[in-house]
Amino acid sequence: MYKLPVLMYHSVLLNKADRGKHNIYVTKGALEKQFSYLKKKGYETITFKDIYEKEITDFKKKIILTFDDGYEDNYTLLFPLLKKFNFTAVIFLVTRETYNKWGTEQGEPKKNLMTKEQILEMDRFGIEFGGHTCHHPELNKMPIEVVFDEVRNCKEDIENLLNKKAISFAYPFGGLNDQVKEAVKNSGFHYGISTKSGPIEFNEDPYRIRRIEIATRTTLWGFKRKVSGNYLTKKYILF
Ligand SMILES: [Zn+2]
Q1: How far is the CA of 36 from the centre of ligand 1 (A)?
Q2: Which pTM was predicted?
Q3: Residue 9 C-alpha to ligand 1 middle, in angstroms?
Q4: Alpha carbon of 135 to ligand 1 centroid (Å)
Q5: What percent of the chain is predicted at pLDDT more than 90?
Q6: 167 near 189, Cβ under 8 Å?
Q7: CA 222, 225, 228, 233 torsion-angle sign
Q8: pLDDT averaged over every residue in the chain
Q9: Model pLDDT, residue 26
Q10: Rounded to 5°, angle at Cα 116 from 90 and 169
């Protein structure tokens, strides 16, 4: 049975040397090979908005590409590739920081986030922008008032900028619990996107959507397996 692959990316780099210690970034070269493969195999990239508005239930050969944090390189390096392949993507924005402050605190290299003008230009091309809080805290460790502020204000920031509804939200660090899920739902988001936790069926829990990570180490062979639609099986799911 085909499972909708929801891929998780972060920053896109020109050189592997800039990859940082967590190895969660991909090079533009690797990404281009991955996109070529998807194109050749006839995959259609979709967004959460597509699923919600068009009520898509048949996910065969469909895929969602997501990028967390809203790095400037998503504009300078990813956007040209999306245009080249005529692909869409979902980018989750941290709305009240100008660089990855939370990452530099953990020893990651400093990276700028996209400007408003860059976001608006990608929005016009059809990229979906979702929420990722205002400051990137671990929501499951925060008092509930902070959770609500971070989630609601972030939604408002995006909607004020784009003049359209933000319907998807990705939990920073994948940090979620029932209270956090409830806050995301009550704030008006239709989808809560996790990292590597959640059921393997897309529709089973819309507030805990599992993703498949594509990182520095992912080979093209590994990528093919990950997008095959049967990568997630009970065997791999521990929680
Ligand atoms: Zn993040």
Answers
A1: 26
A2: 0.95
A3: 10
A4: 10
A5: 82
A6: yes
A7: negative
A8: 93
A9: 92
A10: 35
User: Which are the contacts of 77, defined by CB distance < 8 A and separation ≥ 6?
Assistant: 12, 13, 14, 28, 31
The pair phi, psi for residue 155, each rounded to 5°, is: -60, -45
Residue type, 186: N
Arithmetic mean of pLDDT, 51-68? 95
Measure 40 CA to ligand 1 centroid, in angstroms: 30
Q: What is the pLDDT of residues 60-80, one digit of tens each?
A: 999 999 999 999 999 999 999
The model's confidence at residue 239, banded by pLDDT at 50, 70 and 90, is very low
Instruction: Please give the distance, rounded to the nearest whole angstrom, from the Cα atom of residue 170 to the centre of ligand 1.
Output: 8
Q: Which pair of tokens denotes residue 55?
A: 């009520």
Residue scoring higher pLDDT (70 or 236): 70
Tokens of residue 183, six digits: 């806050």
State the Cα–Cα distance between residues 94 and 154, nearest whole angstrom. Answer: 7
The packing angle between helices 116-125 and 144-162, to 10°, is 70
| pLDDT higher than threshold 70 for residue 237 | no
Distance 108 CA to ligand 1 centre (A): 12
CA of 222 to the centre of ligand 1 (A): 23
φ and ψ of 121, to 5 deg: -65, -40
| C-alpha 113 – ligand 1 centre gap (Å) | 11
